[in-house]
Amino acid sequence: MMAKRRAVITGAGQGMGRAIALRFADDDIHCALVGRTESKLRAVAAEIADRGGTAEVHALDVTDDEAVAELGVALADATVDVLINCAGDWLINYLQDTSNAQLDHILRTNLRAPYILSRALLPNLRRSDNASIINIGSLVTSNLVPTVSAYTASKAGLKGMTGSLAAELKPELIRVVMISPGPADTPMRDAASPGIDKSVLVDADTIADMAHTVVSLPRGITTSDFILYSMRWG
Cβ distance 11 to 86 under 8 Å? Predict the structure, then answer.
């Protein structure tokens, strides 16, 4: 019997991460659910089980280097076919009102954590016969707007990291792609923009479908980073 493909998904307790996990599980991909809140991860794992899929829970903060190292140890013997760096945070604030602590938090969460996690799981990805790393970016890297300078800096850095790592791992046929959604219908968006018109948002399930399309490409085939947004936006 062929072993199941395995995906490690950060930020899997809600929003895009949850939607991606459910979509992958529907395709019989075993999901390692990573996030800070164990109760949310277990709820997603239960949803996956109800749909006939399988999942495991790893409750940790992706900005905690020791916890990420422990995850690497826990998965030491496992083949990882997909890494989805979805965990992230948002900050809307003028530059003059943004503290060093806020800037550091956004950079650690949105840029440094995907870097460290990708490095930690690279040995596992190298065992796969069709490995993918997908980093979740943002429309702000191409459609620049005010009051999100820290967030934009983190996602622009992630875009550069994605491109460089894609070139680095190209000889090994490991694809590295960034999906950059416009405003998405997620709890994070609700918190950032209370009362926003949901018709201008991208549904999380649509983003999950695109992530599944990328990881389903044949070995040796990739795509360039792309933006996914509602035509009603802006």
Answer: yes
| Catalytic (active site) residue 151 | yes
What is d(CA 15, CA 10) in angstroms, rounded to the nearest whole number? Answer: 11
Q: What is the pLDDT of residues 135-174, one digit of tens each?
A: 999 999 988 889 999 999 999 999 999 999 999 999 999 9
Q: How many CB atoms lie within 10 A of CB 109?
A: 21
Sign of CA dihedral 50, 85, 87, 148: negative
Identify the three-state secondary structure at position 185: strand
Question: Does the CA dihedral 217-233-142-189 come out positive or negative?
Answer: negative
pLDDT of residue 144: 86
CA 4, distance to chain mean position in Å, is: 21
Residues 230, 141: Cα–Cα separation, whole Å: 16
CB neighbours (10 Å) of residue 189?
A: 20
CATH class of 6-228: alpha beta
How do residues 135-146 score in pLDDT, each as one tens digit? 999 999 988 889
Predicted TM-score (pTM) of the model is 0.94
Locate 161 and state its tokens: 């990291």
The domain locations on the chain are 6-228
Of 94, 115, 151, 229, the active-site residue reads: 151
